[in-house]
Design brief:
This protein is an alpha/beta fold and about 260 residues long. It contains nine helices and nine strands. Helix 1 (about 25-35) links the parallel strand 1 and strand 2 (about 40-50). The longest helix is centred in the last third of the chain and has 20 residues, at about 225-245. The protein is globular. The two termini are about 15 Å apart.
Length: about 260
């Protein structure tokens, strides 16, 4: 697929979870599934209150010689709602103000994305919280908003979010599956010029991304028992991660970023 200028568009899924929080696939299992069953170029692992899952996924991608690249990220619970932080070097603490969290992410050179905007469940940023941070010029600005999601509850508010973004917020858009099962990967994606994580970052900063919703797996494919186990896991794993203080890491703890081979 190309854009109006004929530039090749890559595909990214910017919202996915592993067993490091409330997902049902380990980091390596998630990477293997994405590599074997999707055409995703870039995958953001965004476990709740935990950055280690994305580092483990980066290491798995390097060991497997995967074609896709993995972004280090996490889904952070702020006092105003959930926020996705991408391109992180260190974990960011939970249950702080939205202003504090935005500043902490930007201080690392990261990007702040709003997942499932306007939802009551999961806990999400509302219209006023987003509006306060869309035109901030001192480093506390939201960088993008999720306008395509694979999560059923999030899809209920997306038409309203799209309307507000077009009329008022004018934020770059992105898509993410919010996958808790590997089968859901790619059910909502971000299209961007290029194919690498660096290309994606540049596109988000320039507002050149497109949010695209695709086919989500059926409940029959996931299975009621698996869904029930995931819900139980969410009740246990996510609060535990939120209450745990993030541990500081040295650069030696992190996997080296794999170089992408030219085609």
């Amino acid at each position: 697929m190309t854009d109006s200028q004929g530039t090749q568009l890559g595909t990214a899924d910017l919202h996915a979870h592993t067993t490091r929080s409330d997902g049902m696939a380990s980091p390596i299992e998630l990477v293997q599934w994405a590599e074997q069953h999707t055409t995703i170029d870039v995958l953001a692992v965004t476990d709740h209150e935990d950055l280690s899952g994305s580092w483990a996924a980066q290491e798995a991608a390097a060991q497997l010689g995967a074609r896709l690249q993995v972004i280090a990220g996490m889904e952070i619970t702020t006092l105003s709602g959930h926020l996705i932080a991408l391109f992180l070097e260190e974990p960011v603490p939970s249950f702080r103000s939205l202003t504090y969290t935005l500043a902490a992410v930007h201080a690392q050179g990261g990007l702040c994305l709003v997942p499932h905007p306007l939802c009551l469940i999961p806990y999400s940023l509302g219209r006023r919280a987003i509006a306060r941070h869309v035109h901030d010029s001192v480093g506390e600005r939201i960088d993008a908003v999720e306008l395509a999601s694979g999560a059923p509850l999030a899809r209920r508010t997306q038409a309203r979010a799209r309307g507000l973004n077009a009329a008022r917020w004018r934020l770059p858009e992105y898509g993410g599956s919010d996958a808790h099962f590997p089968q859901a990967l790619g059910s909502a994606v971000t299209r961007f010029p290029g194919h690498t994580a660096d290309d994606l970052q540049a596109a988000l900063r320039a507002g050149l991304t497109l949010a695209e919703r695709r086919q989500a797996p059926s409940l029959r494919r996931i299975g009621m028992r698996a869904l029930a186990r995931q819900q139980l896991r969410a009740l246990c794993a996510t609060p535990r991660n939120a209450l745990r203080q993030p541990r500081r890491h040295s650069r030696s703890d992190r996997p080296a970023k794999p170089a992408r081979t030219s085609e």
